[in-house]
Design a protein that fits this description.
By secondary structure, the protein is an alpha/beta fold. The protein contains ten helices and ten strands. The strands form two sheets. It has an eight-stranded mixed sheet with strand order 1-2-5-6-7-8-9-10. The chain has a two-stranded parallel ribbon with strand order 3-4.
Length: about 280
């Protein structure tokens, strides 16, 4: 049963403004790029764009899945845009980025799940912006995990992220297109292929999960060598998304941070506004 209530004070944030925010918005728009910041109605857009950074959403803004925690549109996507790598590189150059997080919609329509396009974006950015570091936030590469890892391996180094999103019991309600075991398998395969690469995942709280379920997810992630974890509050991004069951307090997020560190994660962010790409460039 939903018990969604008015937002508590700690979850209220101002909409972005200011010169740097405006410049970021204008640059993204002029280059015709998509961001997860806008497509997922991220509450951190004001802060991130105000710092002159954005998480690029490649391979279009139409997803082949329809997970109910997400507001990204679903349907039949267009073919990959061959000019997108150039435009992403230009964004990094114009904004003076040192660290770029790249994510995408799920592209189950592509034989490689979009891995070649990720590779092409990274390679073009490296040609244009010296010293740029990367973090990837990928889908689960359903039916092509080995092929995708082989392709992406040609574009190392980067942080490799894939979000577990929620506890297994919530998958039928929240993440119908996903599979918990498949997500763990991808993270494990990435670590096995690239032992020195930092792997990362994220989980949302407030969807009706139990404490022992979250602990088990953290243990499962550590069992496949996951190094980094982001823990944040689920916030309903659209009227069609599943409702919030609980607003978790900042004090409880601090407790989860300590718990994750005790379980062996070397990089932990845990707060109501934490998202997988939020302050991703920070050191542990």
């Amino acid at each position: 049963m939903s018990v969604e209530r008015r937002l508590p004070q700690w979850l209220k944030r101002r909409i972005g403004s200011g010169e740097t925010f405006g410049r970021t918005a204008q640059t993204v728009s002029e280059l015709g790029l998509e961001t997860i910041c806008t497509n997922a109605n991220c509450p951190n857009r004001g802060e991130c764009w105000g710092r002159g950074t954005a998480t690029v959403l490649i391979l279009g803004n139409v997803c082949t899945r329809n997970c109910r925690f997400c507001s990204v549109g679903t349907g039949r996507p267009l073919p990959p845009d061959a000019d997108e790598p150039r435009r992403v590189a230009e964004l990094a150059r114009q904004l003076g980025l040192k660290y770029l997080v790249i994510t995408s919609v799920d592209r189950d329509d592509l034989a490689d799940g979009g891995a070649e396009h990720f590779r092409d974006v990274i390679e073009r950015c490296r040609q244009e912006v010296e010293g740029l570091q990367f973090e990837l936030l990928v889908g689960d590469f359903r039916d092509c995990q080995d092929e995708a890892i082989a392709i992406l391996g040609k574009a190392l180094p980067f942080v490799f992220g894939h979000n577990i999103e929620t506890v297994p019991s919530q998958y039928p309600r929240v993440r119908q297109g996903g599979d918990y075991a498949r997500s763990l398998q991808l993270l494990g395969k990435a670590k096995a292929a690239w032992p020195h690469v930092q792997t990362k995942s994220s989980i949302m709280l407030g969807l009706g999960e139990r404490e022992e379920e979250v602990v088990q997810v953290l243990r499962d992630l550590r069992s496949v060598g996951c190094d980094r974890i982001a823990i944040g509050q689920y916030l309903r991004p659209s009227k069609d998304s599943v409702e919030v069951v609980e607003y978790v307090t900042p004090e409880r997020f601090a407790w989860w941070s300590d718990k994750a560190k005790a379980l062996g994660f070397g990089w932990v962010m845990s707060s109501p506004f934490t998202r997988s790409s939020f302050h991703a460039e920070r050191e542990a």
